[in-house]
């Protein structure tokens, strides 16, 4: 498959995430804080850089409707836990795509932890707008907490449609402000890119969990600085302080889109 040439902006985004994934590698503090914030909803093994919990994994399993032996794509896969967990649970193969080469190298090293043979796992540099995957490659696609970083939403949805085989589904996490949404409703975004909106499920507990996560970052600032370094913790605290107050108006959703048969 062809290598993707990332744009300047995508390379810059990749560098930001390279630094984040490199700093968190080999430490457990961020995962431990996610775990404390999620309680028994936290799937330890997945070790995601997101609000991935048992409820989200369950919805993805149910909404993807995949069969053993099929191909799953995880876009914005990070260190791969979500896609690897799903690949094992659904007995499918997984192709992970991310702008961060550091995340991908960590993801490759995790395939064995999930007991997956190498031929069922592939990780590649690419972006939401340009995955580098062939047309109609995927029997299912997931994208967890990555879509919000893509400035060109339309291009990302068009790429998702291109990569899905007709009839296949994409399950995405997304968020919007209840008072001033920046984008049209999902029904319009789907229709405008030739996809069918099959389900949009709100996750009311997610903003509450993020509030707990952000509070814990502030409370554990010293320990975080010791393990992750100042640059990372500065950026985490900036996120906590800027996004934290917006959470009370945030709606977190799981969106299932299907590519029409024709
Ligand atoms: C918040 S992390 C989530 C990672 C993973 N989905 C998880 O749940 O653990 C966001 C990831 O998306 C990637 N990402 C952000 N924007 C992207 C884009 N436009 N194309 C591809 N990957 C992107 C980042 O490099 C990062 O690894």
TrEMBL record:
Methyltransferase keyword on record: yes
Keywords: Methyltransferase, Transferase
Tree of life domain: Bacteria
GO biological process, any: methylation
Location of the Methyltransferase type domain: 73-171
Pathway: Lipid metabolism; Phospholipid metabolism
One family name in Pfam for this protein: Methyltransf_11
Keyword Protease listed: no
InterPro entries per UniProt: Methyltransf_11, SAM-dependent_MTases_sf
Any one GO MF annotation of this record: methyltransferase activity
PANTHER family found in the cross-reference section: PHOSPHOETHANOLAMINE METHYLTRANSFERASE, PHOSPHOETHANOLAMINE METHYLTRANSFERASE ISOFORM X1
Protein name, as recorded: Class I SAM-dependent methyltransferase
Organism this protein belongs to: Streptomyces musisoli
